[in-house]
């Protein structure tokens, strides 16, 4: 190669130098200036690591004056290249290579290959694999649902998929206790964020659940919420604190009596607002509480709204109406009208029951085709269910898979010290409260009983719950210091970190606490289903709190029957309340979602009996039992039955489970992560089957690899192990480690240019093959979800010397097995000889890829119009019968169809990777 003063060359040994210009030539040496870094380098002419920079037609170039041109012609004049091109004004200009900007970035596969910047064949294979896996994930029907560290349960997956795919969903999640509403909400948030439908979320919860939500969102969904409390807000700079974070978690109490903070929260636009324990919001026909009014304003300012409550109707129809009113005030505007509609839904339920028996009811709406199959008629009736799209409620009876409950009663003599005390109702139920010190521990027979029971139950884990923090602290201290029982306390006086440590100590299988003593907050939020013994040191007056206590162990995932131990003082209010819960509500053996409503019904008769039990108590037990039985039958009929059908369609959920399991069980993710680690220089160590320990090394390609800490990170690909071992990261295709690493591959030039040799029978030595990988480049807002219909759609071409297409004859995987490395000097010599041939083959490959692109785009637009068009037609027809379908939803669907079509039509090809292969 002849060097001339003024020519532009690039160093393939150090691409960071930018564009060099020849400034001095000696017989055996050449000197280049690199203006981008202000350096000069001198090389031996014989082996200079330099490649002449030649742009071609269609390339974008920049001059030192900042003028950008699209090259239309390249000519050589006295050894220097002259580029002719058009600027953004469509004016034609000619510039010498001397005028080119020194800060050149050779990033396209063709530029890098032809200028001697190529990567390992392993990196090329990694890039191709990354594109293929990304394409598959984009088109998966389970997208957004596979990354959760949760069991694959039908009702949770169905709700998450149904709600998560909606534009700005506004729904009430009202599953019974123990069915996982927090998990459902987390799945919905995760899917909305991952698919781009939402980017900002605000979660409002009771103070006792802040810790639970923070931990659940992080451990189960890898969602990093910022916890806002008074301390955090005091430390933040001036301005609106809610605009500083994308995901915010705080207590609803934070806004009480603080109008300025309310206004800041309202001013920060939220894509999704989530309110847990929504039944605590105060509303009546006469007026609304401050908390309700604030959430009402927030709901009006936010696109999406999720309300969570396990008690949608138990505290009255008016309260239930108040929640629905937050979701859609135009639809739910009048309580009397709502009550009439509720009665109509019971008629629908009766029709559905008849259809299930194979009967066609006479009262079937006249516009329905009576000749349809019963299942189709049922679907159409469910679509007309007034709140079926905004309310999801699964019951324990419908979901099944729950353990049996067994009550164990322990009558203990009441000590004189308690008998002599003058007690109010609170003290009657919790007789230790009046004592300002721990002296009651010495004479309360429940304490000695607790010691003996815990020792007899060893080594089983035991959860102990009592109403008050002072009781919990005293008991735990006694067990630890005087009884020698490993224990931990969990109460509202602890910080979030201290609560987490106590729960972790209890969960530890080897060397952990045998018992965890909780105050009432232990019955909300936290789940301890690894234990199956529950001791109720006292009983709450609210049946819903009792159900929540039992629900800490009686949950999906519990492998044993739940053993409930209740010690009580004979002749006390405790015994009376225990009898009422046991013989009246049968609450220890069977969950009852209407417990509080039943309590309110009999409150005036029950409270006097707690103070002094009379002969009328037996009549109260009989009346309560009859009323409870009738109430349970009511709940299991009518609207609940309809909602169960709409809240979990098992065949839909099963198809999602099948898709997730197929992706997890195809054994592709583990080797792919290992390949990523090799490429980026992350050390891997075998831990156990499907489990690795990843550690940073001194030879890392970048200073950071997502999710890998300095101490090392243990990762497992096994869902069951991930559920059992929270100290391990459960890796799925949607884990941030994988998603961010894939982005690191695709956002850089890693692996986009390579060269190798191969031995092929029947193919003459020296034959050139060009392997090219193209993807579809569609620039569109994420919220449109265009990739659902038009994913990356990789197109692989393998062009031989005559332009023949060999991709199907020689698959990519087979090629990777046969390819051999080429020495750098040899590779550079090859590149210099095949510039023109590569350009010619690229033109052929581009033509073939463009033909395939047009076919792909046409199919994508057809698929999009069929899919979204069918949904639009269904909702438009349904709106005539079901007013809960908002016009906003229909408008967004119409807009989405038009915009998706526009972006699909303007999609283009993008060359992602190029490999030159020479046969030997």
UniProtKB/TrEMBL annotation:
It comes from the Bacteria. Pfam families: Helicase_C (PF00271), RapA_C (PF12137), SNF2-rel_dom (PF00176), Tudor_1_RapA (PF18339), Tudor_RapA (PF18337). One of its GO terms (molecular function) is DNA binding. Residues 449-621 form the Helicase C-terminal domain. Its EC number is 3.6.4.-. The keyword Transcription applies. Residues 162-330 form the Helicase ATP-binding domain. A motif (DEAH box) lies at residues 276-279. GO terms for biological process: regulation of DNA-templated transcription. ATP binds at residues 175-182. Interacts with the RNAP. Has a higher affinity for the core RNAP than for the holoenzyme. Its ATPase activity is stimulated by binding to RNAP. Belongs to the SNF2/RAD54 helicase family. RapA subfamily. This is RNA polymerase-associated protein RapA. It comes from Pseudohalioglobus lutimaris. The lineage of its organism: Bacteria, Pseudomonadati, Pseudomonadota, Gammaproteobacteria, Cellvibrionales.
